[in-house]
Each structure stands twice: as structure tokens, then as C-alpha cells.
Design goal:
- The structure holds two protein chains of two kinds.
- Chain A is mainly α.
- Chain A has one domain (about 1-100).
- Chain A has three helices and no strands.
- Chain A has helices spanning about 1-30, 35-65, 75-100.
- In chain B, about 65% of the residues lie in helices and about 0% in strands.
- Chain B contains 25 helices and six strands.
- Chain B has two domains: about 55-515, Cytochrome C Oxidase, Chain A; about 670-845, Cytochrome c oxidase, subunit III, four-helix bundle (Four Helix Bundle (Hemerythrin (Met), subunit A), Up-down Bundle), CATH 1.20.120.80.
- In chain B, about 55% of the residues are buried.
- Chain B has a two-stranded antiparallel ribbon with strand order 1-2. Chain B has a two-stranded antiparallel ribbon with strand order 3-4.
- The chains are: A mainly alpha, B mainly alpha.
- Bound molecules: protoporphyrin IX containing FE (HEM) and copper (II) ion.
- Protoporphyrin IX containing FE binds near residues 110, 165 and 419 of chain B.
- Chain A: Keywords: Membrane, Transmembrane, Transmembrane helix.
């Protein structure tokens, strides 16, 4: 279980963040002006939380790669990189939205 | 390495691996017994065979048949378009033909072809005797073949769909598409998706649970990684298109207005649901092909894949990120501005993993000594074509450019570059590369070069000019064009190119007829020098014994492996239980867990496929009674097929080699059945999730027409009975010591689920919500219908358990059936609750 969590956790965070960002962006489009700022802050907060979580996963996996398991360093390294990638992707996809608002 | 000993995943002591290869000679008659158990089919048995060595070949063959058929349609179109104002095809026929060409290529060729490759290759690559559910893959194959052929034949009766391969309503609604042409598409494709999902379940469980011992994730072949991600993506993406086709069919057949704007529906819902599937579809097709490339490139370059783990990472990233881009097909539909920015960002990001793969292949080719044999040529050709397609794709991902190029021949050119480079050429590379594994002769090198040359040249001749015709403004999907706009030359060249391409395919067919000799007792063997287990000497039982794997390229790195495996010096050298069997191992470290007894051929899965196909086809021609009958027969066949599952063997444990004893029965998460059930439930959950999305989406289109939900009493009653039903069914497993009690609990659980469903349905009816009147009515009823379907299945399962109890098949020695039924019922309860609360609390609860 732990293996899959560290391998896919970061990317799953990315997916969750994507969905949330999509929902919030849609809400912003149909809501009145005074609701837009709080929604934007919500997304900003969410983005920060997801990025931090992904980075935490990456660090954890990187540490684990120093005590390799049966499958060697492969899985922990892969997990570390996957989570790092997810963190970058999360920033990347919320940038256009946060930039504009 | 220093430090504490590495923890085991299952408690299996991996030091036992040291016992292999065993010494000494194997007992007499062991190999003969294995051969007898896995014997070849005789006479009519070739229809009921389930061995993947056969089914895999059939499956690939059928996919290639559809490739040729859809190719013939392409030639017809190119003949029509070769010169301006031609009369080869009438407009309506042209519409049917381009729709069929696109649909058959995408749904009946591309996805099944790569899935077929998985069924054929995976057991050998993973060191299994067969995939865990051989009858399921056979069922998937027959359902696909019968359904696909019937679907294709609609063309001969002028009944073929004509709405384009993505079937946008309102064009495909009954107003603009009367007649049953569109229904053929909806039911036919919906049905074939079910077969694809069945295959995906098989692949996931196979890759996770039937690997050779020691094949930890770092030693999992790259092709298996690709197939794993591929199958996972099918599980996530296909439910969306199943839901979409069901909703549109409901609108057409019963008048439920999901997409009809006059009654609160919205055609954009179709586009969302379709492209949530449709874009990942491109990567779904591309991933296994990339997996094949990543296997073939090292073999022809004679060096390990450079950056193996980066390629795996790229697969994983593609698997996720490709879901974040569906709306880029809708840039021109006036989406809200901010979401366009997001989708555009994801669309650009998704080309990165593809880039990583391409660089890894190039680096591998550069670091090894490339041989320009037939697979090698196709590999190089694929790289070139795919990169060109990728470039035009990045262009189209930029929103302003897409506004210009949308719906012109530029897109047709782009899509064919990507698909042919990303999937067709790799597939041909795979066919040339792996033919010696299944056939007595390899394919001809000389003809292979011709095939490659003609296909490569034809491809560029046909599609390079289309970029130009597109930029000159020629729209796609037009059956002809007027002279005098400079479109003549590029169109003529395109048509010539199409025929050159076809000539290449023809030569390949000739080559196959001359050299392809499967199912024999001899195989050409490892002519290209690959490093994977699939090149071990093998018979119909796969390898004689199942090796302990210690390398990513076992045949390159493990000395004498082939010899020792063939001499039976590894796991499972014989058939300890006297039947077909394979080893089940753990998902991460591939530690042996138990022995899986496998079924032998029988006709039930074939009949099940026939009747399932019958159900959908008869539904299309509106023969409802016959259709229901066929559906019932299909269910009977499936139950009959499951009947002999879950029977403990007399030997509780057996020696699987070198004195290692493993159990012969398993339940819970170590068993393959549990994994299959969980994956199936994920499919159900995805359909539910997409329905909830549809619900919210439709509400956001006409919030003021949404009416308040029924009273809270019904809510309370339905909640209580759903929770009670699910809990009873789940707890039944603990009462197996008293079989009647356990059976009664399952039945009561099913009944309570039925009650919850009935209460919910009737409360909506009592406030007069009609499915035809409004989008709310339609979508609430759709969610209810999905739940009703699950409740019906749950009822059948409960009766099945009762029947098994009557035969004395329920008891503490066989928990698996009760456990899986319990899981299903508990899921049904949860699904019912989600539907219940979403439809009641949203949007009413917000106010
Ligand atoms: C050399 C072989 C092929 C030729 C000559 C060819 C030709 C064509 C032509 C002429 C069209 C119709 C353009 C229009 O009128 O808008 C088309 C559409 C299409 N083709 Fe192909 N094609 C080939 C191979 C493939 C393959 C291998 C695939 C997929 C794996 C594919 C998928 C499609 C799709 C999805 C469409 C769009 C259909 C639609 O507009 O609904 N084609 N092709
Ligand atoms: Cu796309």
C-alpha cells in the first residue's frame, strides 16, 4: 500500500488539484464580482497546500531511497521524481488563473 | 548492501529463491503431463479455446482485419477526393464512410489491437502460464469480433452512422438523425467499450498478480508498465464514454432531454463527456505502442533502454496529465476564459513525457549498434512521423492557431501523423518483432523492407500535402470540392499516397500468408535477440518452469536461464494439482503467494459473448422482447461460467518446486478475484462520478427550472435501508460457520438495497418529476437507472448465493464468493447513498 501511495500520491494530488481548480475557475466565471476574490484566495491556498503535500511526498520518497528495499532504489526514486513533477505541474496549471486575478 | 534486511511484502522468505535452479533430473512423465493438460484444441474446440497463445493471435488478427477494412474505406474516400466534383460516392455515403473509417480505426482497430498485443504477450513476458482470467479475455475477444462485424455490416445496408467519429448532438439527436444509424454507433460502441474494459481488468490483474517470482517493480518489463498504465487509463476514461453513449441513447429512445436545449439540456455535456474520454484515448492508444517501442529499440540496438525509469515515469505522468486536457478540443466552443488557460497549460505539459520517451529511444539507438532490420526500420519511421505529428500538435494546442485550423484538413493531417507514427508503425514493428515468438517462421526481411518503404513513402505523400490543403482552407468531412481553388494538386497527391500506403499493407498481408504459421510445435525463436522472458523456449503451457527473475533483461543477464527453465529447474516444473495452474505473486515484489487453478475450455463464455452481442444488436433494431431474452440468456451463461469457480481442491497446499509449499486456495486481497472485483467497482464508481458531474453541469445550465427534492422521510428510510443492506452483505463473510445465516444475510442485504432504491424512485415519482419533461428529471432518472442496474445485479448475485447454498457450496472453506458478493453489495449501497444525497442536497442544500 505504502509503495503505491508514494508512487502515485503526488500525481493523485495533481489530479485532485486539477479538478478543484477547474471547479473554482468555473464558479468564478458564473459568480458575481464580489465573490471572485475569495474564490481566488481559495484556489491560491489550495495550490499552496497541494504543492507542499507533493513536496513532502517527494522528500519522504527521496529519504527512503537511501534504504533501498527489495526492488532497489527504483521505486523510491521514481516516487520522488513523480511527486516533484506533480508539484511543478500544480504550479504550472494554476499560474494562468492566479496570474489573471 | 549494509543495513537491516529488506522487509518482505508478504512474509515470504526470499532467501528461498537461492534453491533455484534445482539440481538433479525431473521425474519421468512430468513434461508429458504438462503437455496433456495444456493440449491443443481439436476439431471444434478452436472456438472454445481459452489459452492466450490462441486467443491472443485471434485477437490481433481480428484487429488487423478491422484495420484493413477501415483502410479500404479510406481508399474509397481518397478515390472520391482525388479529383474535384467526382461522383464515386454520394454525399450521404461519404458521410457514413468517414464516420465508419474514423470509428472503426479508433474503436475497432487501435484500442483492441494494443489490448490484443497485451493478451498475447503479457503471460509470456511475465512468466505466467496464462492470464488470470483466460475465459474473460476470450469473452472479450468474441464479444468484440461479433459486435464489430455486425457494426461494420451496417454500412452495407445504408444504416451506418454518419455523424463523425465523435457524434456530436444535436446533429445526432433524433431531430437531425432519424433512423437507426446513430443507434448503431451508440449501442455498438458502448458494447465494444465493455469488451475493452473486460480486457483491461484482465491486464491489470495479470500484471500485478501473475509475475514470475523476483520480478519486483524495478524488473518489470517496460511493456508491462505501459500496459498497466494503459489498462488503468481505460478503467478511468471509458466509463465516461459509456455514460455519454447511454445518455444519448436514452434521449433518442425515450426522449430524456440531456442534450436538448429546449428542455433544459445542453449539447455541451456530450462534448465534455466525450472528450474526457477522447483525449486520453489518444494516449491510451499511444502508450502500449510506446511500450512496444521501448522493448524493440533495445533489442535492435543491442543495449539496455537508456533511462528506463524515466520512461516509466513518463508513462505514469502521461496517464495522469492526459486527463487534464479534454477541453482543448473545445477551444472554439466559447468556454470560459480562465478554464481555457488551464487546459492550454496542461495540453502543453502533456507533450513533455512524450518528449522524454523520444529522447530515450534516440539515446538508446545512439548508444547501441542499431540493426536496420524490419522492426528497426519501423521503429525509426515511427519516431520520425510521430515527432512531426507532435510538432503540429503543439501548434494546435495554442488556442489562437486552433481557431484557424479547427475543422480543416490541417487537423486531418495532424491526427494521422500522430496516430500512424504513434501507433500504426510501432504496431508493425511489434508484429515483425514478435512474430517469431508465435510462428514457425519469421516474416520475410525482404518483403518487410518493401512494406516499410511503401508505407513510409505513402504516408508522407498522403498526409504532408493535407497540411497545405488545410491551410488553404479546405474543410474536413466534405465529400467533394470545386475546381479552381488550387486544391486539386495536393488532393491528387494525397490520393496517390493513400494507394502507395495500401500497397505496403498488401505486401504485408502476402508476407503473413506465406510465413505466418502459429500454433505449431516449433517457433522461430529469438531471431532479434530480445532480453525478455517471452523469448524463453515455450510450448502451449508457456515455459516449462517459471524462473526466478533477477534482472530487467533476464535473458541477457541470467546465465543458462533458457536451459534451466526448459529443464524444469525453477518454479512449477509440473502440474502439482493435476490441472491448469499458474503462480500468483504479490503486486510490488512478486513474492509467491499461492497457486491459482485455471479453468479448462468450455463453451459458456462464447455463448455469453454471442448473447451479449445479441442483446445490444437486437436493441438497435428495436426488437425489445428478443433483446431482453438474449440478455437473460447471456446472464445465465455467465453464471454457469462462474459456477465452477471457488471450489477448494483436495490438496490445501502443494509443492511448487524445490520443496516450497503454497496454498491452492485464496481469498481476500491476495486473490486475483478480489482485485478484479475492486477494479470493476472502480469502473462503476467512475460512471457514478461522471453522472454527478453531468448533474451539476446540467443544473448550472438552467438553475431556475430545478425543482426542490421530495420529503426527508423517504431520505431517511432510503439511507437506513441502504446502510443496513450494505453492512449485512459485508458482514456475511464472518458468519460462514453458519452457512444458512450467511446466505440469509446476503439475501436480506440485497432486499434492503432494493427497498432503498424503490423508496428513492417512488418519492421522486410522487412529486411528479418526469424524465421527459426536464433535464433535471432526465439526469435524476439516469442516476437512478444506474443504481437500478446495480441493484438488479445484486439481486442476481444474492440468488446465485442461494443456489450455491442449496448445492452445499457455501461454507467456511470457501469464503471467496460470499466475500466478493459482499463487496459488490456494499459498493452498491455506497453508490446509492451518493446518488441519493447528491440529488437531494444539491442545489437545495446550498440555499
Ligand atoms: C493511410 C491510411 C489512411 C488514410 C488514407 C486515411 C484517410 C482518411 C480520410 C480521407 C479521412 C476523412 C477526412 C474527411 O473527410 O474529413 C480520414 C479521417 C479519419 N481517420 Fe484516417 N486514414 C488512414 C489511416 C487512419 C488510421 C490508421 C487511423 C487511426 C488509427 C485513422 C483515423 C481517422 C479518424 C479518427 C478520422 C476522422 C473521422 C471523422 O472525421 O469523424 N485513419 N482518414
Ligand atoms: Cu486531445
Amino acid at each position: 500500500m505504502n509503495t503505491w501511495l508514494s508512487l502515485l500520491g503526488g500525481l493523485a494530488l495533481w489530479a485532485a488539484h486539477f479538478l478543484a481548480a477547474y471547479a473554482i475557475a468555473s464558479l468564478v466565471d458564473i459568480s458575481s464580482y464580489e465573490h471572485q476574490a475569495p474564490l481566488t484566495w481559495l484556489l491560491a491556498g489550495l495550490t499552496l497546500a497541494c504543492v507542499l503535500a507533493a513536496v513532502a511526498l517527494a522528500v519522504r520518497a527521496w529519504r527512503a531511497s537511501r534504504r533501498p528495499g527489495l526492488g532497489g532504489v527504483f521505486v523510491p526514486r521514481l516516487s520522488a521524481l513523480a511527486s516533484t513533477l506533480a508539484a511543478i505541474a500544480i504550479v504550472w496549471q494554476s499560474a494562468p488563473f492566479l496570474w489573471r486575478h | 548492501m549494509n543495513g537491516p534486511p529488506t522487509p518482505s511484502e508478504t512474509g515470504f522468505d526470499t532467501a528461498l529463491y537461492e534453491r533455484f535452479p534445482t539440481k538433479g533430473r525431473r521425474p519421468k512423465g512430468e513434461l508429458e503431463q504438462l503437455e496433456a493438460i495444456w493440449c491443443a484444441p481439436r476439431r471444434w474446440e478452436w472456438i472454445t479455446v481459452i489459452n492466450n497463445n490462441y486467443v491472443g493471435v485471434y485477437y490481433v488478427g481480428a484487429a488487423m482485419l478491422f484495420f484493413v477494412l477501415a483502410g479500404v474505406l479510406a481508399l474509397l474516400m481518397r478515390t472520391q477526393l482525388a479529383l474535384p466534383m467526382q461522383g464515386v460516392l454520394a454525399q450521404e455515403t461519404y458521410n457514413q464512410i468517414f464516420t465508419m473509417h474514423g470509428t472503426v480505426m479508433m474503436f475497432l482497430f487501435a484500442v483492441p489491437a494494443v489490448e490484443a498485443l497485451g493478451v498475447l504477450l503479457l503471460p509470456q513476458m511475465l512468466g505466467a502460464r496464462d492470464l488470470p482470467f483466460p475465459r474473460l479475455s476470450a469473452y472479450a475477444f468474441w464479444a468484440y469480433l461479433i459486435g464489430g462485424l455486425a457494426f461494420f455490416c451496417s454500412l452495407f445496408f445504408g444504416l451506418a452512422p454518419n455523424g463523425g467519429w465523435f457524434m456530436y448532438p444535436p446533429l445526432t439527436s433524433t431531430t437531425y438523425s432519424p433512423g437507426i444509424n446513430a443507434d448503431f454507433w451508440l449501442l455498438g460502441i458502448g458494447f465494444i467499450e465493455i469488451s475493452a474494459i473486460a480486457g483491461a481488468i484482465e491486464i491489470i490483474v495479470g500484471v500485478l498478480k501473475t509475475r514470475a517470482p523476483g520480478m519486483t517493480l524495478d524488473k518489470l518489463p517496460v511493456f508491462a508498465w505501459a500496459m498497466l498504465v494503459f489498462a488503468g487509463m481505460i478503467i478511468i476514461a471509458f466509463p465516461s464514454v459509456i455514460l455519454a453513449t447511454t445518455l444519448l441513447e436514452l434521449e433518442r429512445a425515450l426522449g430524456w432531454p440531456f442534450f436538448d436545449a429546449t428542455r433544459g439540456g445542453d449539447p455541451m455535456l456530450w462534448q465534455h463527456l466525450f472528450w474526457f474520454f477522447g483525449h486520453p484515448e489518444v494516449y491510451i492508444i499511444f502508450l502500449p505502442a510506446a511500450g512496444a517501442m521501448s522493448t524493440i529499440v533495445p533489442a535492435v540496438a543491442r543495449t539496455p533502454l537508456v533511462g528506463h525509469w524515466l520512461v516509466v515515469l513518463a508513462f505514469l505522468a502521461t496517464g495522469f496529465i492526459s486527463f487534464g486536457v479534454w477541453a482543448h478540443h473545445m477551444f472554439t466552443t466559447g468556454l470560459p476564459g480562465v478554464s481555457v488557460g488551464m487546459f492550454s497549460a496542461a495540453s502543453m505539459a502533456v507533450s513533455l513525457p512524450a518528449g522524454v520517451q523520444v529522447f530515450s529511444w534516440i539515446a538508446t539507438v545512439a548508444s547501441g549498434r542499431m540493426k536496420f532490420n524490419a522492426p528497426g526500420l519501423f521503429v525509426l519511421g515511427s519516431l520520425l512521423i510521430f515527432v512531426m505529428g507532435g510538432l503540429t500538435g503543439v501548434m494546435a494546442a495554442m488556442v489562437p492557431f486552433d481557431w484557424q485550423a479547427h475543422d480543416t484538413y490541417f487537423i486531418v493531417a495532424h491526427l494521422h501523423y500522430v496516430l500512424i507514427g504513434g501507433m500504426v508503425f510501432p504496431l508493425f514493428a511489434a508484429i515483425y518483432y514478435w512474430t517469431p515468438m508465435v510462428s514457425a517462421h519469421p516474416l520475410s526481411e525482404r518483403l518487410g523492407r518493401w512494406t516499410f518503404g511503401l508505407m513510409f513513402a505513402g504516408m508522407h505523400l498522403a498526409f504532408l500535402p493535407m497540411h497545405l490543403t488545410g491551410l488553404m482552407g479546405m474543410p474536413r468531412r466534405v465529400y467533394t470540392y470545386a475546381a479552381g481553388r488550387d486544391w486539386e494538386w495536393p488532393n491528387l497527391i494525397s490520393s496517390i499516397g493513400a494507394f502507395v500506403f495500401a500497397a505496403g499493407v498488401l505486401i504485408w498481408v502476402i508476407d503473413m500468408i506465406r510465413n505466418f504459421r502459429p500454433f505449431g510445435f516449433s517457433e522461430a525463436g529469438n531471431v532479434y535477440g530480445g532480453g525478455g522472458l517471452e523469448w524463453l523456449p515455450a510450448g502451449l503451457y508457456s515455459t516449462r518452469s517459471i524462473p526466478v527473475v533477477t534482472s530487467l533483461y533476464p535473458l541477457w543477464d541470467q546465465k543458462n536461464l533458457a536451459r534451466d527453465v526448459a529443464a524444469g529447474r525453477y518454479f512449477l516444473p509440473g502440474a502439482p494439482t493435476g490441472g491448469r495452474e499458474t503462480l500468483v505473486t504479490s503486486p510490488v515484489n512478486a513474492e509467491p503467494q499461492h497457486l491459482l487453478r485455471m479453468p479448462i475450455p468450455s463453451g459458456w463464455h462464447v455463448w455469453a459473448a454471442v448473447f451479449t452481442a445479441g442483446f445490444f444488436l437486437l436493441l438497435t433494431v428495436q426488437a425489445y422482447a428478443a433483446s431482453v431474452l438474449s440478455g437473460v440468456l447471456a446472464i445465465v451463461c455467465v453464471l454457469r461460467w462462474c459456477w465452477f469457480l471457488d471450489h477448494p481442491l483436495p490438496q490445501q497446499t502443494v509443492d511448487v518446486g524445490a520443496g516450497i509449499e503454497l496454498p491452492t486456495y485464496a481469498s481476500g486481497s491476495s486473490s486475483t478475484g478480489w482485485w478484479a472485483m475492486v477494479v470493476t467497482l472502480v469502473v462503476g464508481g467512475m460512471v457514478l462520478a461522471m453522472s454527478v458531474f453531468s448533474y451539476v453541469f446540467l443544473w448550472s445550465r438552467s438553475p431556475d427550472t430545478w425543482r426542490p427534492p421530495p420529503d426527508t422521510t423517504s431520505l431517511a428510510v432510503a439511507t437506513a435501508s441502504a446502510i443496513g443492506g450494505g453492512a449485512l452483505a459485508l458482514l456475511a463473510r464472518r458468519q460462514l460457520g453458519r452457512p444458512w445465516l450467511a446466505t440469509a444475510m446476503v439475501i436480506a442485504g440485497g432486499a434492503l438495497l432494493g427497498l432503498a432504491f424503490g423508496v428513492d424512485l417512488s418519492s421522486w415519482r410522487s412529486i411528479g418529476l418526469s424524465p421527459q419533461a426536464s433535464a433535471q428529471g432526465a439526469i435524476v432518472h439516469a442516476i437512478l437507472a444506474w443504481q437500478g442496474f446495480f441493484v438488479a445485479v445484486a439481486a442476481i448475485m444474492a440468488l446465485y448465493v442461494l443456489l450455491r447454498r442449496l448445492y452445499g457450496y457455501v461454507g467456511p472453506d470457501r469464503p471467496a464468493t460470499i466475500e466478493l458478493v459482499g463487496l459488490f453489495l456494499a459498493y452498491t449501497a455506497g453508490q446509492g447513498l451518493v446518488g441519493l444525497y447528491v440529488t437531494r442536497l444539491f442545489p437545495a442544500g446550498l440555499a
